[in-house]
User: What shape does this take?
Amino acid sequence: MGFRVIDGGMVSWLDSQAIYHAVAAAMSGAGSPVVTLVNPSKPYICIGYHQELEKEVDVDYCRENGLPITRRQVGGGAVYLDENQLFWHIIVPRSQAPYRIEEVYTRYLAGPVNALRRMGIPAVHRPVNDIQVEGRKIGGTGAATIGDAVVVVGSLIFDFNYETMVRVLKVPSEKFRDKVYRSMREYLTTIRRELGARTPTWEEGKQILIEEIAKSLQQDVYLDRLNEREETEMSRWRKTLTDEEWLYQAGGLRHKGLKIAEGVHVGEAAHKAPGGLVRATIVTKERTLDDLALSGDFFIFPDNSLPDLETALVGASLSEQELFERSTEFWLGNKIQSPGLAPIDVAKVVMLAAGEQAA
Amino acid sequence: MTSAVYRGCEFPEGLFYDVERDVWVRRDEDGCVTLGMTDPAQAQCGKFVHLRFKAVGRTLQRGQSAATIESAKWVGPFPTPLTGEIVATNEAAFKQDILLANRDPYGAGWLVRLKPTHLEEEWQSLLPQEQAFERYTAKIDEKNARCYRCID
Assistant: This one.
């Protein structure tokens, strides 16, 4: 019999989230898998299940700019979603899904990964749940158990609005925002950035995706519509997803820093050195310092040496010892005078920004 | 209390199991029951990053979720195999150590205590260790599962 494909086309922002929650909630243990495909008619912000809205998102900015916000019952961080992203949701009875979550991703990401490859993008599944192309993320994914179903969600990103994504995030400083923006531009890619004029049309992309998901699941597919039970669940989920209590749930999860892609993080921390406060905003890639900005109320002479110090530290591994040695070398080589700020303070603040406990 | 172990997955004696929902149940002397995730369940979802419990005093129907768990890459419910009122949660301990269920799923990592209201009719769906172990070995083979505990 195979699995059902429900191609919802362009739907309201609310239905683009409600649809997979509803199909999962309506699924019985003995059902067959369902794939839903939609894109939202207008942009919106979607936060992860355990996030605390006001700590993650600039709610005032979203209100002023008419960006709706909702919370999904899937984990992860806040994301900006719009009509240039083709959302796919693979919904499978729990009894048919692999047991370990790593295997869930391996099995169900194969279709979307192969679809990108067929378009000409050398995409790979980077465990646990990234889809990457030559070290850059081209699709985030997530998984959840909702009712008796396992749900794996993701999107084919044709184009991405980096500016708005970065603007809506609540961040500790504008420097942090700038680092997030730059690292997103560098480490988050899209189908159009990879393929340019060879980018398939929306409908071609969708067809490739359906075919590759079918191949990976080794089942036939047939196009279908939501059934009555699923429609009933849709009504229920539309209410839940717009419920203020649901949206403003408190006591949520607070991630240290911000993950851009698997292995790429932005972090910020301050450290009180004897001469004043020093703050580091950093980008790390595979536990190596990829970029950093230092600031604070300390003095350093020559007074133009800070950018050179930052450059000297780029490429260092996240080890207090190595950061200390590189800083010391810079201090000695450039005859640095910095009352109350020593190489060890630089090493400590970078480690703190990386979320590591400085010794 | 002795345990049966298969592919790293432990199943202590004296507990009762809902194999389908991956939940263990212990009958306490005060008539309440303590519930937690089984070893395969904690291994399946991986390291917890967050937990949200339903409120104490709330009555849950069998199958409803008593808590929502978020691990690094998954969100899912903790379903109760018994109908009853939540009389306690282990929230305070998980606030101290979010990995409690990954380290000690049958002890310090318990999740909720319930005052069951339909115990007689629902209890028969739970299996004692010996029978549960038989079912679990088949399930673990079928899913090619293995259990790991957090020790750090």
Q: What stands out?
A: The interface with chain A takes residues 40, 43-46, 49-50, 52, 68, 70-77, 139, 143-145 of chain B (CB under 8 Å). The helical segments of chain B are 39-45, 91-96, 100-103, 119-123, 129-143.
